[in-house]
């Protein structure tokens, strides 16, 4: 019923969190939506490779989900985190609330969120999901895109609007880099991250579940977010050179004894010894660029436009907000891409750059701040 013959074709490149949500936004407007994703359908995949197992969904992100009727579905599978729980070196724990009483953020499963959004996009008859399509090249003049398919074949297809939601290493963005007056910067921070699982104890969460647990330790930091299966996903952030100093199981335990002693029994010494070496530490990149559009043909959203370091927990949330902002501008300018795209860049670039800066600032400051709070907490019981 939604399909209208006069509607333009919108190609969403990348079916990650932002691409899948965006497909819903465009489908709701009745566009002919074609989504192209390099990976196979994660709803059918045995192992879902991702960037983090769970993430913090905040108010910004929830508002965007609400616009496409997905808020309740996602929130019902999220775990509220009412405060941060700071772990001192001695193992003492002290909560620091997020804001006013009753405010919280949610720990959500990344893979489930992505799957639910794909299924939601697919319920629109005017949306088609194309997996195993890796964008290789596209033309800003014609909107013609070339995709690599498995087994070496290629396909081409044309769209009126190309929406680049293909993440921090965006192939869509490559075209932008070839153009004059496009600003671009990319910075890798010296830290890497590694995820470790804390299993349930006697069938229950090993720590209090309704908190984002944080172990601030000068240049290191570990955080843990709860999952529905009563595990916690712990993420250890530290400089790559520190990760590289640890090469044996004994060294892992020594390191944890020195910095995160209370986590050893919680994660389990044997698990730690093994899991630390399962995957190498992952890099984190901050990408800033402007503008976010080319003519009336292409626009970047999500990490493709602004990858941020995760210390502010706002990467996905900011990407979700991109979708709402674009949607509002579409209303304002009657879906006229030649007016909507420049306005989107004008409005969105400063806000996204501010989020990237805050995240980078947080990376430096958050640990100092939390250590300070910890110090205050234990020297002043009233805080
Ligand atoms: P992605 O999730 O990267 O998705 C891009 C998609 O495009 C992928 O599916 C990819 O396969 C596809 N693709 C790539 N290239 C092509 C191509 N050439 N052709 C077709 N498809 C392609 N954010 C939060 O808001 N809260 C958090 O708590 C949080 N925690 C984080 C923790 C860590 C450790 C990290 C690394 C990030 C965290 N983030 C968090 C940030 C969040 O993960 C990203 O902002 C979010 O994933 C961006 O979504 P996206 O859809 O723009 O990009």
Automatic annotation (TrEMBL):
<dbReference type="InterPro" id="IPR002938">
    <property type="entry name" value="FAD-bd"/>
</dbReference>
<keyword id="KW-0560">Oxidoreductase</keyword>
<keyword id="KW-1000">Mitochondrion outer membrane</keyword>
<dbReference type="GO" id="GO:0019363">
    <property type="term" value="P:pyridine nucleotide biosynthetic process"/>
</dbReference>
<keyword id="KW-1133">Transmembrane helix</keyword>
<dbReference type="Pfam" id="PF01494">
    <property type="entry name" value="FAD_binding_3"/>
</dbReference>
<dbReference type="GO" id="GO:0004502">
    <property type="term" value="F:kynurenine 3-monooxygenase activity"/>
</dbReference>
<protein>
    <submittedName>
        <fullName>Kynurenine 3-monooxygenase</fullName>
    </submittedName>
</protein>
<keyword id="KW-0662">Pyridine nucleotide biosynthesis</keyword>
<keyword id="KW-0472">Membrane</keyword>
<feature type="domain" description="FAD-binding">
    <location>
        <begin position="10"/>
        <end position="323"/>
    </location>
</feature>
<dbReference type="GO" id="GO:0071949">
    <property type="term" value="F:FAD binding"/>
</dbReference>
<keyword id="KW-0812">Transmembrane</keyword>
<dbReference type="GO" id="GO:0070189">
    <property type="term" value="P:kynurenine metabolic process"/>
</dbReference>
<keyword id="KW-0274">FAD</keyword>
<dbReference type="InterPro" id="IPR036188">
    <property type="entry name" value="FAD/NAD-bd_sf"/>
</dbReference>
<comment type="function">
    <text>Catalyzes the hydroxylation of L-kynurenine (L-Kyn) to form 3-hydroxy-L-kynurenine (L-3OHKyn). Required for synthesis of quinolinic acid, a neurotoxic NMDA receptor antagonist and potential endogenous inhibitor of NMDA receptor signaling in axonal targeting, synaptogenesis and apoptosis during brain development. Quinolinic acid may also affect NMDA receptor signaling in pancreatic beta cells, osteoblasts, myocardial cells, and the gastrointestinal tract.</text>
</comment>
<keyword id="KW-0496">Mitochondrion</keyword>
<dbReference type="GO" id="GO:0005741">
    <property type="term" value="C:mitochondrial outer membrane"/>
</dbReference>
<keyword id="KW-0285">Flavoprotein</keyword>
<keyword id="KW-0521">NADP</keyword>
<keyword id="KW-0503">Monooxygenase</keyword>
